[in-house]
Amino acid sequence: MIRNATPEDVPEILRLIRDLAEYERALHEVRATEEQLNDALFGPEPKVFALIAEHEGRVVGFAVWFLTFSTWLGRHGIYLEDLYVDPEMRGQGYGKLLLAELARIADERGYGRVEWAVLKWNTPSIRFYESLGARPQDEWDVYRLTGDTIGELAASAATPATGR
After folding, report:
1. Residue 94 bears catalytic tag
2. pLDDT at 164
3. 3-state helix, strand, coil in the chain (%, to 5)
4. Reported pTM
């Protein structure tokens, strides 16, 4: 069963986030708390959303997503931040069901894209995504600002051109 997450799912979502991070060899990078996830997913104006995969009443997978916007298409899209299914439940269709539900949401709302990133070494996931018709966007590289670099760049914005 695939359903929208509820506030009661937050501890399980955090468990799955940690399991995913461990699988991706980056558990040390997880800083999220249950309170932060609850605020982000269920606060007054949520900007991020989650789907839950259940098997016999037990949470076995999730997808966390948010809206993007394509200036070229002139339409919103979905960015899939995380998709994870417990290892013992893989191969039973839960990952496909989660992605199918995201595709249904995108189609129903007129969104132009569903996109995500995958680690280059994660060949099982790459094979799975390609089996569904997804294709890599090899002409693009992902860049990121984090931590102190955000503050450093923000400080440089205090110029006469911005009026600050």
Report:
1. no
2. 52
3. 40, 25, 35
4. 0.89
- DSSP-derived letter for residue 89 is G
Tokens of 41: 């997913």
Q: Which helix (H) or strand (E) holds 4?
A: strand 2-4
List strand residue ranges (DSSP E) for 71-159, in order.
75-85, 114-116
- pLDDT band for position 158 (50/70/90)? low
CB atoms within 10 A of CB 111: 20
> Of 84, 94, 111, 129, which one is the catalytic site residue?
129
Q: Which helix (H) or strand (E) holds 54?
A: strand 49-55
pLDDT exceeds cutoff 80 at 162: no
> Is residue 52 within 8 Å of 3, Cβ to Cβ?
yes
